[in-house]
Design a protein that fits this description.
The protein has one domain: HIT family, subunit A (2-Layer Sandwich). The protein is about 30% helix and about 15% strand. The chain has three helices and five strands, in the order αβββαββα. It is globular. The chain starts with 11 loop residues before the first helix and ends with a helix. The structure holds adenosine monophosphate.
Length: about 140
């Protein structure tokens, strides 16, 4: 599949944005939403999305980029404060060939803890929603 293509309004993140699917929400304003990854690669794995529909970073409006990455940085700072990881990975995949599986632009924030294994991209187990809500609340408090 090409890196470009039509935006599918029925992708899972579009459904979350419309409130048709649940999520453990951390933050929302008129441009951005963030929530916990349902299949976390590590404890505290969360996602930050621009609300405006775009498949990937190549198709995100330049005016939305600064706000998106500013919000990502705020989340990294909050994750560090709330969960005290030893490191934090920030990733972002563009196109199926790069490993992207949900075609609404998003940035991954993945805390790393010394000695704790991390699962592969999209290799995580589904997490308990209550546990995700607790993590989301901790990160939200630290934002
Ligand atoms: P990517 O492969 O970069 O498109 O990442 C998509 C991410 O979305 C993966 O890390 C999945 O674990 C995550 N994911 C898939 N479905 C959901 C969902 N319903 N709620 C939260 N995260 C999800």
């Amino acid at each position: 599949m090409s890196i470009h293509g039509p935006y599918d309004p029925d992708n899972i993140f579009a459904k979350i944005l419309r409130g048709e699917m649940p999520c453990a929400k951390i933050y929302e304003d008129s441009h951005i939403i963030s929530f916990m990854d349902a299949f976390p690669q590590s404890k505290g794995h969360c996602l930050v999305l621009p609300k405006a529909p775009s498949r990937n970073l190549l198709e995100t409006a330049p005016k939305d980029i600064g706000r998106l990455f500013g919000t990502v940085q705020r989340h990294v700072i909050a994750v560090k404060k709330a969960l005290k990881p030893d490191g934090v990975i920030v990733t972002q995949f563009n196109g199926e060939a790069a490993g992207q599986t949900v075609f609404h632009t998003h940035v991954h924030i993945i805390p790393r803890f010394d000695g704790a294994a991390m699962s592969k991209h999209t290799g995580g187990q589904v997490a308990d929603i209550n546990a995700l809500e607790i993590l989301a609340a901790k990160i939200r408090t630290a934002l």
